[in-house]
Fold this protein.
Amino acid sequence: MCSTCGCGEADVRLTTLGGEGSTGHGHGHAHQHDHDHGDPDHHHVPVERDEELRTHTLELEVAVLAKNDGLAALNRDWLTERGITALNLMSSPGAGKTTLLERTIAAAGRPVTVIEGDQETLFDAERIRRAGARAVQVNTGAGCHLDAAMVSRALEELQPDRDSIVFIENVGNLVCPALFDLGEKRKVVVISVTEGDDKPLKYPHIFAAADLVVLNKTDLLPYVDFDPERLTRDARTINPGVQVLPLSATTGENFGAWLEWLY
Amino acid sequence: MHELAIAESVVSAVLERTDRHVSVVRLRVGQLSGVVPDALTFCFEIATVGTPLEGAVLEIEEQRGRAQCRSCGQEFSLDDAILLCPCGSADVELLAGRDLSVTSVEVA
C-alpha cells in the first residue's frame, strides 16, 4: 500500500458488465495519481532522521477519514455537475438489495447504472445486466465495505449518463459501510422481515446514517415473528424522524412508494 | 473489520504531515463513532509495519457522547446511540461522540 494516499488496494478488482467499454482497464484512479501527490519532492524513500533525537509533539487535529471524505466530496461534485443521483444501498447479506434493484431497473423512468460491491464473484453484476442495466462489480477481496476511492474508480469505468441514477450496492454488512462516505446523495438501509425487528438497536450506526429505511419482504410477514411498528419505533430512537418504507421487491407490493421516493 | 481501514487512514493522515519517525500517535475516538478502540489498537500494529510509524504507541482518548434535548433543553451524556433524553423526548441534538481524529503525534 502507498502509505501516503492509501491506494494500492491490491485485492480490489473492478469488472464491468453490459454495454460498451466493458473491458477492464486495470488500476485506474479518478484522482490525479502520478505518485508524487502533487509534490515532486515526494518519494517513497526513507527520510533521514533528524540528528537531534529529542522527540517533540506535533499537533495535528485532523479527521482520520479526511482523505476518504475529501474523495467522497469530489465524487459528489462530479455527480452533481452531471445531474446524477447516487444512492448508497446498505444492508446485511440477503436482505434483497439486488432484487430491489432488478425491479427498479424495470420500472425506472430514468437510465440506471449500478456499482456492485461484494467480496467475491460477479453474481450481482450479472443479475443487474440481465435486468437491463450496466454494472461495475467491485470485488473488495477481504474488504468489508466500499470506500470513496473504489467508487471513484467505478464511476470512471461506468461513465453514467447525465441525469441518470447510480445505485451503489454496498457490501452486505450492517456495520462497516456506515462509516464511509462515498459521495452519494442519500443512504438507504434495506432490512428484511426475516432478519428480525431488533436490528436498529443492535446495529445503531448504520440506522443512524440512513436517510431512508426500506423494510423488504413484506410478503413474508404472515410467516415470521416481526413487528414493523417496533422496527419503526426503534429506528427512530436512533434516527428521529427517519422514514420507513415497507415493500416487497419480489411481489411489487407498495413499490410505487419507493419509485415516488426515488424521484 | 473496518478498524483496519481506519488504522490505515490514521497512518496515511499522519504521513501526510510528517515523514519523520513517529513514536506516539494520539487519537480522539468518540464512543458513538462506530470504532472499537481495542480492535483499532490491534489493527494499528499491522497497518504501521514498514512505515515511519512502526512500533509507535497508540494513545486513545475516548470521547463520551453528549446531547442536548430540544424539548426540555437539558444537556446529558449518552453511552450508546439511542438518542433519548431522560425526560423521555427523542428530539435531541447530538453535540459530541462521533469524533474520530488524530490529535497529535510525537516525532523524533
In short: Chain B is about 25% helix and 35% strand. The interface with chain A takes residues 1-2, 5-6, 8-21, 23-24, 27, 32-35, 50-52, 80-84, 90-92, 100-108 of chain B (CB under 8 Å). Residues 3-15 of chain B form the longest helix (13 residues). The helical segments of chain B are 3-15, 37-48.
